[in-house]
Please model this.
Amino acid sequence: MKNIYNYLHTEEILNRIDKLTLNSQPIWGKMDVAQMLAHCSSFQDIAMGNSFPQRGWLGILIGQFVKPMFYNDKPLAHNMSTIPTILITDEKEFETEREKLKQKIKTFQNNGPENCTTHPHSFFGKLTSEQWGKGIYKHLDHHLKQFGV
Model:
């Protein structure tokens, strides 16, 4: 499994983000490209310990049992539910959101595993920095595939 802490994997993701355009259309889902970038940026905030969504009852109940889906080699399902606080529905500016996400990815990678959040994921619960690194890559890969890059 690829890991965002690996410089080459980070570069791959950044290059794919650069291939997106304002006119990129989703293969599935409701978000436009700028909303997707803002969503991914908000997810980075969680992994960096800058945002702390509350755990929902379903995550508390089953999160620990299904959390390998976050960091294993199997692709994420299309149209999965997301953390309500990072569901982006308002209009966003494409270039601003793209640059913001790229900066957060670089910061996360540069900060290394030792600076990853220890706060539990709102659905999956406690994750190691290694699990976060794989999960961040997998989440970004999922959304970039959503837009064909």
About this structure: The chain has one domain: 7-146.
